[in-house]
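Q&A log
Question type: sequence-to-structure
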Amino acid sequence: SGSSAAAPLPEEDCMKLNPSFLGIALSSLLAIDLWASKRLGVCAGEGSAWGSARPLMKVIEVSGHGIPWLLGTFYGLCQSDSSAAREVLLNLLFALLLDLVLVAVVKGLVKRRRPTHNKMDMFVTISVDKYSFPSGHATRAALVCRFVLHHLVLAVPLRVLVVLWALIVGISRVMLGRHNVTDVLFGLLLGYALYSVVEYCWLSPLSAPALFALW
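Response status: OK
Response body:
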């Protein structure tokens, strides 16, 4: 016959024209994440909607940074004269170091760029901090929060303040424009789960006598 049948599309072209439901869902989630993060970045700059609150948000940023926590924990470990306190502080130091390594590895693997509205004026950064996923501050806040609640005897108001601090650190990351919403949510979940690893690998005079001999 004079008419010829249309040639079938290659399989890969069919896949592009008929994206999977999972692909559509992930693309939609990414779009919502970017939109919400942009709208919530109200302290991303001095001229932003809540630009006057930016200095306060940066103080909260420092409160969740790794360096103050590492230095403070190490100082407390050196000054402590109680074996029970040394055990807790040594495990907190171990938890903080494990958190830094894990977050750096995940950031290096995912390599998600920070939001475009972020001002790169963060407190003490390293090369991997140019990446956004996950939020190291959120991971650390959740980890420290769970650690403190389990190993320090605190009155109920103080326990509530510790939880609020962890949540505020996470929220401040989005408000400052440092991270997208999903960066913070995953960071909080990762930090919460990381505490279980620390508990499982708990360092004690029986399991790690060499470490305790140093102190």
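Response note: The CA atoms of residues 54 and 113 lie 22 Å apart.
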